[in-house]
Task: structure prediction
Amino acid sequence: MSNIHKKRSLPPLAALPAFEAAARHQSFSRAAEELHLTHGAISRAVAQIEERMGVDLFVRRNRRVWLTAAGERLLKATGSALDGLDQAVEDIHRHAGTSPILTVSCEPSLAMRWLMPRLGAFRQANPDLNIDLRLAGGPVDLLSDGCDLAIRRADYGISEDYITTHLWAEYAGPVCDPDCWENILDRDLSNARWLHSRTRPDAWDDWKRASNLNVSPASEQYFDHFFFALQAAVNRLGTAIGPLPLVYDDLATGRLIAPHGMEPTGFDYVLITLDPPKRDPRIAVFFDWLTGEAGDMGDGRLPDQ
Result:
């Protein structure tokens, strides 16, 4: 017989919440209070399940009840099932197009150095839509992670199960403190300490190839994360390769300069969704805002200082 037509040996499903409450409290009276039912209604629901299953779920003695071994097993399964249903319903409402919450997964460096400083303006422009920001990088599982969308640098294989929408091309170049460039480095990268990140170990070599400059550092320093290398450049500890979105605000305020401009890295920042962005009005609003905020950044244009 086909599994589609196979009869499941389930107890009466409508009675399970009453059983779960009674089993959790080990009291029919307290279960009745919680569910706003009568003691008799709880007792009848439990009796229906016991009759269907052919086993006792409770030991009844002196107006008290205790779970049997079968009752313990059914409580564990019922609790998990009800919790799963509750979470599924919450997720459905949370990720519906009418939900007031949009859950966004974004790479940590991009989130901290570019996205988060702008979310206040997004909130002012869209007061009815709240952004739940999750910091994560690399491959994403939107369903398992409970996210509506992800923003990623497309430097890894993205599953064909997702819709990938281009946001902007990435440009990068050496960035450093302007006073150091003028008065300490004498406008020469070979006098600089080059700051590296173990998460992007080839950033300097890639830039040298793109810019056709053959230059070597005076010294080098390595950091575990790209964010730290960029912060070290802001703190005048050396010169780092700065992708434009991650140093855009520092360039705009003059904390950093990009003396050799920016070169394309060959990678794009993308929006990853389950469906086309325009299908969900929340994602459509956020996508339009993102591309508007990016402006000419995808063309490698530096901010006006």
Summary: Strands lie at 58-61, 64-67, 101-106, 130-135, 149-153, 163-175, 193-197, 219-223, 239-243, 263-273.
